[in-house]
């Protein structure tokens, strides 16, 4: 099983085997027995945190007071921007530990912080099939609210705590992205407070330059205060078909054929367990299910999803099951993909699942807050977390590069399309194109792993094939390399025109590893 290979702790052959033992007993426990802290403190704390937000959002939504308060809250953002002293550039006041990214931004310490306390779903319009959300609405909150009413957004990025604002300003992807594009492509308009404190709305037809420049700009063009998104009808189940593949050629050709399929699959996903074996999953929503084939994989006592999928590979059989929609959306949530193995090593044990599985996963934000310096350094040296987005045509070559450089399994494969719109993300060949997200999270299985050098070699490969790197992880590119990967023409024009240069840091200074703690 993939699980037995994964550990963040340096092995004797590792390049970091001479790292010093962590100082102090608390650090020692944090590093060697992180699960003690997680089980006795973080899981109960995560539970209480969820109850608080769940109750608050429920009350706010039921009494429909959010739209009225929205204007007042936006006026407060405008006031903060207008009274900015003009010295240090601005960023949002959301603390770094709360965000779903590997590191915290160093700029959070030096920038002038603007509080954007906008946490509500504002309006659901089933006639125009749109939803208006404030930027701190989380994916967990949004799918809960919409699915109960029979709706959903076409692209629901994994992980409950991802926010609408973070996904618009960064990027978001899910297994429906080959049909609907990235999170930015399901957005119809944005409401922003600009550097001068003015409030603007932008869409394809109104301020299009701004509309196309907001995604991937990481809050360096203005503060987002609301987003209008498409919604689509939700169905009760997702019918998932599992197709085990026993060679790289077979996996790549199955994955590509299912992504291109004329009649279409609503969801396409791949999990690679070694360079020569993996499972391609295709899925479609439906309202009825065959008797005996429903699998509520989100239930607390169920095995982790990636281990469940691996069983199809072990048996060498194709399979079909019906998964309730929200369970499907959250299939990787309980195991934080496969990262939970390093945090609660016995988390997939059946006794643990029945007793405490309902408290899992711990909140990523609380894990970040309590990880300590020694744990941070261990992850830094022995852990590799990257999502590289490469053209579908380069998929096989890219997987071979990942195998040579890091040899981490499982690998997450998710196809998506890039539309030929202006902005940071220009598709290869200038026309709409299909890409694949190669998500690699874990401890490298090679002896010569070096965080910076290895990542830079992979980044160079991604640039060569005209791909992109997701910026929530560590990027070691130089400014020139970063500007080669992302088209800055429109971004630079807007930054000048809207006098952003003093008001916000430039995007590179927010996302590069040099500027992370
Ligand atoms: C009004 C409202 C406001 C909310 N606000 C917030 C908020 O501000 N912040 C926030 O983080 N969350 C928020 N949530 C979401 C909620 O806290 C999470 O989605 C929580 O994980 C839901 O668990 P559940 O068991 O009650 O879901 P259920 O309705 O029981 O979920 C349906 C199915 O999906 C599965 N499932 C749901 N969530 C997960 C998961 N995380 N992992 C695995 N399977 C899962 C369940 O096991 C179940 O089978 C809000 C929800 C509502 C209704
Ligand atoms: N499945 C997926 O697609 C996944 C995506 N991710 C990544 O996680 C990140 C999102 O995480 P999340 O914790 O939600 O977001 P973050 O708090 O990390 O925010 C990401 C960026 O968006 C900016 N931003 C957020 N809200 C606003 C706003 N209202 N106005 C202006 N700028 C804003 C932040 O600016 P500032 O720095 O000023 O705070 C920050 O630079 C994205 O980068 C995404 O790519 C991670 C895991 C999975
Ligand atoms: C595009 C997709 C699907 C991306 C999924 C990315 C996840 C696997 C990433 C996002 C945030 C992430 C980097 C994180 C971690 C694991 C991998 C995560 C969850 C953990 C929890 C690993 C343990 C670490 O000590 C620490 C708590 C800092 C991080 C926090 C962020």
TrEMBL record:
GO terms for biological process: cholesterol metabolic process. Its cofactor is FAD. GO terms for molecular function: Delta24(24-1) sterol reductase activity; Delta24-sterol reductase activity; FAD binding. Keywords: Cholesterol metabolism, Endoplasmic reticulum, FAD, Flavoprotein, Golgi apparatus, Lipid biosynthesis, Lipid metabolism, Membrane, NADP, Oxidoreductase, Peroxisome, Signal, Steroid metabolism, Sterol metabolism, Transmembrane, Transmembrane helix. Its main location: endoplasmic reticulum. It is found in: Endoplasmic reticulum membrane; Golgi apparatus membrane; Peroxisome. Residues 1-21 are annotated as: Disordered. It comes from the Eukaryota. GO terms for cellular component: endoplasmic reticulum membrane; Golgi membrane; peroxisome. Residues 51-234 form the FAD-binding PCMH-type domain. The chain crosses the membrane at residues 33-54. Pfam families: FAD_binding_4. Residues 1-19 have a biased composition (Low complexity). Coiled coil: none annotated. It is an enzyme of class 1 (oxidoreductase). It catalyses: 5alpha-cholest-8-en-3beta-ol + NADP(+) = zymosterol + NADPH + H(+); lanosterol + NADPH + H(+) = 24,25-dihydrolanosterol + NADP(+). Its EC number is 1.3.1.72. It is a single-pass membrane protein. PANTHER family: 24-DEHYDROCHOLESTEROL REDUCTASE, DELTA(24)-STEROL REDUCTASE. Catalyzes the reduction of the delta-24 double bond of sterol intermediates during cholesterol biosynthesis. In addition to its cholesterol-synthesizing activity, can protect cells from oxidative stress by reducing caspase 3 activity during apoptosis induced by oxidative stress. Also protects against amyloid-beta peptide-induced apoptosis. This is Delta(24)-sterol reductase. It comes from Chionoecetes opilio (Atlantic snow crab).
């Amino acid at each position: 099983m993939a699980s037995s290979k994964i550990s963040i702790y340096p092995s004797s052959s590792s390049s970091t085997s001479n790292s010093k033992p962590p100082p102090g007993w608390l650090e020692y426990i944090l590093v060697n027995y992180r699960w003690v802290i997680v089980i006795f403190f973080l899981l109960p704390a995560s539970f209480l945190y969820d109850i608080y937000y769940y109750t608050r959002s429920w009350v706010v939504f039921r009494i429909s007071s959010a739209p009225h308060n929205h204007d007042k809250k936006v006026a407060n953002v405008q006031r903060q921007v207008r009274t900015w002293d003009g010295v240090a550039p601005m960023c949002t006041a959301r603390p770094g530990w709360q965000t779903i990214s590997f590191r915290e931004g160093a700029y959070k310490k030096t920038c002038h912080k603007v509080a954007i306390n906008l946490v509500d779903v504002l309006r659901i319009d089933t006639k125009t099939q749109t939803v208006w959300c404030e930027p701190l609405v989380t994916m967990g909150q949004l799918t809960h609210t919409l699915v109960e009413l029979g709706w959903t957004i076409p692209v629901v990025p994994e992980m409950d705590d991802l926010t609408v604002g973070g996904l618009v300003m960064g990027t978001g992807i899910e297994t429906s992205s080959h049909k609907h594009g990235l999170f930015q492509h399901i957005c119809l308009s944005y409401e922003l407070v600009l550097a001068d404190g003015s409030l603007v709305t932008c869409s394809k037809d109104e301020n299009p330059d701004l509309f196309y420049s907001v995604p991937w700009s990481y809050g360096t063009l203005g503060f987002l205060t609301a987003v209008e998104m498409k919604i689509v009808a939700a169905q009760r189940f997702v019918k998932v078909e599992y197709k085990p593949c026993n060679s790289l050629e077979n996996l790549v050709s199955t994955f590509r054929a299912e992504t291109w399929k004329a009649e279409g699959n609503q969801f396409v996903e791949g999990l690679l367990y070694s360079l020569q074996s993996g499972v391609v999953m295709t899925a479609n929503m439906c309202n009825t299910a065959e008797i005996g084939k429903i699998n509520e994989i989100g239930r607390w006592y169920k095995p982790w999803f990636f281990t469940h999928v691996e069983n199809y590979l072990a048996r060498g059989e194709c399979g079909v099951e019906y998964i309730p929609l929200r369970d499907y959306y959250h299939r990787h949530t309980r195991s934080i993909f496969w990262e939970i193995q390093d945090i609660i090593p016995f988390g997939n044990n059946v006794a643990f699942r029945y007793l405490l599985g309902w408290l899992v996963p711990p909140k990523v934000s609380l894990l970040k807050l309590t990880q300590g310096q020694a744990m941070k350094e261990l992850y830094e040296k022995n852990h590799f977390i990257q999502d590289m987005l490469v053209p579908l045509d380069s998929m096989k070559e890219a997987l071979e590069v990942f195998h040579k450089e890091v040899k981490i399994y499982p690998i997450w494969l998710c196809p998506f399309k890039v539309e030929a719109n202006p902005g940071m993300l220009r598709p290869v060949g200038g026309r709409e194109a299909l890409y694949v997200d190669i998500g690699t999270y874990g401890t490298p299985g090679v002896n010569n792993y070096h965080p910076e050098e290895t990542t830079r070699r992979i980044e160079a490969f991604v640039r060569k094939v005209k791909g992109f790197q997701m910026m929530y992880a560590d990027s070691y590119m130089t400014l020139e390399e970063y500007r080669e990967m992302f088209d800055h023409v429109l971004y630079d024009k807007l930054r000048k025109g809207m006098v952003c240069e003093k008001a916000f840091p430039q995007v590179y200074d927010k996302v590069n590893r040099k500027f992370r703690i």
